[in-house]
Amino acid sequence: MTRLLFALMLFPAVLLTAQSYHNAPPEGKIAGIPPKAWVEKIDRLAPAQATAKPAKNRTVLMFSLTTGYQHSVSPYASEVIKVLAKKTGAFTVVESSDIECFSPENLSKFDAVVLNNNCPQSPDRDIFLDVLNNKATGDKTIGSKYEDLTPQQRKQKAAELEQNLLDFVSSGKGLVSLHGSIAMQNNSAEFSKMMGGSFDFHPPRQELTLELVDPDHPLVTAFNGQGFIHSDELYLFKNEYAKTNFRPLLEAMFDKLDEKSRNNKRISQKGRLYVSWIKRYGNGRVFFVSPSHQPESYETQCMLRFYLDGIQYALGDLSCEDSPL
């Protein structure tokens, strides 16, 4: 009886400790178009107001085209951004899947671009060229209006569209990259420089333990000084990532990975496993966030606040230290 009473006395303390460590809901089977009930849940959990007062009315272009791997989370991420915009009034959103939205004339209407899981085809790894060459998973007519262009003209136009985005950000605007979109122009050295890295690979989805690199940094205040655990793909990066020319925000704990991942030299030799960061590119600001491959990860107040704060940083309304460590 004494042992039982002692165990019962300990149980509340153990429960409190577990709850204080932000655990995202377990992995489910969400896919396809987000149900109305899910969007309503996100609306309830989303912040009621912006963290920083916008300096002016802000407009964001959300680019949601995918020509390669189709992330089922993409329409969920789209709804998250729309909910954050509508509920807080921090910005308005225009969503497009048309590569012509990257013309200088169109980009001039926006304060930031959100790249929503824009995975391209291999081996080119160039979403603009995929469209121009009429190569897209599930859509055999996406590039039909460009069929009269020569191969050289298509390459030139693809390069121009990428350069338009680079110029947009470097001129002082913002860029937000969600999960798979870091691979959008994966063979481009300058895109890698702007992003802070290029996609390399990921081990199988698993439960990840993420910690705050600097718990006192303004962009991670949403987590109240605590890391969190959720089911996700651990993205690993290459090219510019090796220079760590960014301010890391979240990192995955190597010792918490599954055994197969811990024994993978391609992972163990990477050093610290950063999964979210901010950085400067010219006069502009970039916010990259790998979490998450799973819609369930959005079902927490802290993750929604983190996204909002990152977007406000990219827009230039939330000032914080963004120099590399």
TrEMBL record:
Q: Which InterPro entries match?
A: Class_I_gatase-like, ThuA-like
Residues annotated as domain ThuA-like: 60-314
Per the record, the domain of life is: Bacteria
Spell out the SUPFAM superfamilies in the cross-references: Class I glutamine amidotransferase-like
Q: Where is the signal peptide?
A: 1-23
Keyword ATP-binding, does the record have it? no
Q: Which UniProt keywords apply?
A: Signal
The organism is Novipirellula herctigrandis
> What's the protein called, per UniProt?
Trehalose utilization
